[in-house]
Amino acid sequence: MFAEEPATAPPSLRQRRRATATREIVEAAERHIAEHGPHALSLRAVARSLGMTVQGLYHYFPNRDALVTALVAKAYDDLADAVTASVDAASGEPAARRFLAATEGYRRWAVTHVERFQLLYGAPLRHYEAPVEGPTTLAMRRLGTVFQREMFDGYTTAQLASADTRALSPALRAHLEPLFAHGSEALPPPATALLLGAWGHMHGMVVLEAFGHTAFIGDHQAEVFRMAMRDLLDDIHRRIPTRPSKAAPAPQGTAPAGPVPHSSRD
Questions:
Q1: Torsional sign, CA 160, 161, 162, 164
Q2: In terms of CB atoms within 10 Å, which end of the chain has fewer, N or C?
Q3: How many angstroms separate the CA atoms of 185 and 165, rounded?
Q4: What residues contact 183, with CB distance under 8 A and at least 6 apart?
Q5: What are the two backbone dihedrals, phi and then psi, of residue 126, each rounded to the nearest 5 degrees?
Q6: Burial class for 194, CB neighbours closer than 10 Å (0-12, 13-18, 19+)
Q7: Section 110-115 average pLDDT
Q8: What digits encode the pLDDT tens for the residues 213-249?
Q9: What is the pTM of this model?
Q10: Separation of alpha carbons 30 and 18, rounded Å
Q11: Using one digit for the tens of pLDDT, what is the confidence trace for 51-60?
């Protein structure tokens, strides 16, 4: 007979109370940021809003950086959840439309939660340094994975390696090589360069809108954003060959290797 695996012990009452208190502290800090902005974050004010002393708060977060790290990681996770939900709502659609749905989810979350978006991408908080390879880094990678998957869905590594980009210096190519995975392989440097450029384009437009710099466009900001994202994706897909460069030509009458991308205009 096989030995039964020991059942995982349920959280103790003390652990449940600690988890509840930790969640309440983070939620109170989020409310404080929403009202006063991330740079006005005060542990004393957060503790006061919960009817506890700042010394009591230190039992859960030993310092300000620990609380900020929890807030940043949660904001990234909430943003990633919003992007993922938008993509899931477009399941069954071509990859181009799923990518556009991801960008829309990103934009909507940012303009709806401006102060938390500012915590992620505004001026850095003084004296705060995120832990190396900590929860903030992991949460940010989760977000980037969604955009990478939808942008390059259906393309092989060989096709992405043949993407038409400006020449990359050997030093830059070596730096980009290990940054992202593409299935079981590394995402080729030309594709990584396209991904980073697209991220900067999309993110830049969202920042301008979220921080009020494109208010002169009025109610047309969403339409301008959608148009820009369609053009961005079309340009990226035009740069990726339908078959890898230097590949042997397909026999006459056969379909080309690799997908024929769906235009975002479809």
A1: positive
A2: N
A3: 20
A4: 157
A5: -65, 135
A6: buried
A7: 96
A8: 999 999 999 999 999 999 999 999 999 998 665 544 4
A9: 0.83
A10: 18
A11: 999 999 999 9
Q: Which amino acid is at 51?
A: G
- DSSP of 15-71: HHHHHHHHHHHHHHHHHHHHHH-GGG--HHHHHHHTT--HHHHTTT-SSHHHHHHHH
- Percent of residues, the chain, with pLDDT higher than 90: 71
- Tokens describing residue 99: 């990518």
Query: Could you tell me if 175 and 116 are in contact, meaning their C-beta atoms sit under 8 angstroms apart?
Result: no
Instruction: Show the CA angle centred on residue 181, arms to residues 179 and 186, nearest 5°.
Output: 80
**Which amino acid is it at 120?**
L
Q: Which residue has the tokens 């005060």?
A: 42
Go through 5-31 and write b for each residue having 16 or more CB atoms within 10 A of its CB, e for each that does not. eeeeeeeeeeeeeeeebeeebbebbbe
Cα–Cα distance for residue pair 256/266, rounded to 1 Å: 21
Q: Is the dihedral of CA 30, 32, 37, 40 positive or negative?
A: negative
